[in-house]
Write a structure and sequence with these properties.
Helix content is 81%, strand content 0%. By secondary structure, the chain is mostly helical. α1 packs antiparallel against α2 (33-53) and α1 runs parallel beside α4 (79-116). 13% of the residues are buried.
Amino acid sequence: MPPPRSTEPIVLSVLSATALAALAILAWRAVGWLGIGVLGLLVLFIAVRVELEGNRPMGPQMTPGLYADQYRSEVEAEPAARAGRRAERLSVIGAARLARLFGAVLAVTGFGLFLLL
């Protein structure tokens, strides 16, 4: 018997999309279609950054020892801890990809309608 599915990701996705739509309406009223395009670029930037960082603590680029310690601790971890970390990373990447989709739609719509109208 498969485990029951959680409705939490769906509910959070709907809430996120609703909040983003409310922000898009505010941006449209304040600046017009250009505001929606800029909001889309902001969401894209944040989503790509989160996906690249992989939910790890990040420092400035001048700290290569921080990166080396993080990867060393992940390699030396127990198999169960590695599997848990990988599942956590995949859930964060899935949410970042959904945010990337929302951001791309906002950017294309905002800048496209700004240029057309």
